[in-house]
Amino acid sequence: MTEEIRPEGCRCEEALEHLYEYLDAEMSQVQLGRLRAHIEECTTCLEEVSRERELRVVLKRSCAEVAPDALRMRVRTQLTILRQSRSV
């Protein structure tokens, strides 16, 4: 990866180091603006941000799925059996 220097002084290294704070807007407006300006002009960093956003969508979607009733019942049964065998 080639490190690019922007007029704002933000470099790829800094942008990628603070990627998660940037995506979660957990930084000051000044820092957020500096990183946003860099990311909008840097193909490498923009691709990394896009990949991370896509990963978050996939994770969120997979965490929202509900296990089928039959699977949940099997898990509960196995946990009950396990608890009973430990208390003996």
TrEMBL record:
InterPro entries: Anit_sigma_mycothiol_RsrA, Znf_put
Positions of the Putative zinc-finger domain: 12-45
Pfam families xref list: zf-HC2 (PF13490)
NCBIfam families: antisig_RsrA (TIGR03988)
Protein name: Mycothiol system anti-sigma-R factor
Lineage: Bacteria, Bacillati, Actinomycetota, Actinomycetes, Micrococcales
